[in-house]
Amino acid sequence: MVFKPIRPKKVSSQIAEQIRSSILAGEFNPGDKLPPERELAEMFGVSRPSVREALNILSAAGLVESYQGGGTVVKSLIETTTGPPLSELIKAERERALDVIEVRKSMEAWTAYYAAQRALPDDLRRLETIVAEMEQNLGGMKSSQDLDANFHIVIAQATHNVVWLHMMQSIFDAMKEFQQGVWRAVYLTEEDHRLLYKHHRAVFEAIRDRNPEKARDEMLTHLTFAEQRSSVYVRQARE
User: Fold this and answer.
1) Average model confidence (pLDDT) for the chain?
2) 213 and 104 both lie in a single domain
3) What is the CATH number for 201?
4) What is the DSSP string of 3-48?
């Protein structure tokens, strides 16, 4: 038997492995910026060239993308280079957003289900904070659009399944402009805002109470309502 000599791993490879593990654990969302090279070098106790080489490794693997003067951004694990981007498709054919919501009903019913099984105390605190802020917005009829989107992303994070998270983030990024239109054109009354708040609170309470079936059902109730209101928005745009 012939043994091969043991070679220590390069510092840059060790750095890349730690950052990769953090991304795959969902500690960084798609679109999040990594700390600057200088900070990463201080965190790891290494030189900046070693950090730069590690980022190049991650970039080659498709996990991050570096921009001149804009830092290094975590990329979605979901391939988006085949065919037209979903956001452009929705802009060109608004009806396609309804197809996306139909897909969301299937996906998010199960993200809520798994979140009810797996959510950690910190996940529950974040969801509770979002719901509380939505309730505060009711007084002045302030839009909770950003809170709404964040609520769904945090549920995906609470599954602790990085694929769910990246799929949801990609869909929400593509739907952002459409959702802004829906909020401006359809969710106009106090009753609308209170109903949305009630839906989100019901989903949160089911997750908090560790009731997967109820969490799934409450999410379907909410997204069926969203689908109906989005259909109204699409019809208005045709007229």
Assistant:
1) 87
2) yes
3) 1.20.120.530
4) PPPP-PPPHHHHHHHHHHHHHHTTSS-TTPBPPPHHHHHHHHTS-H
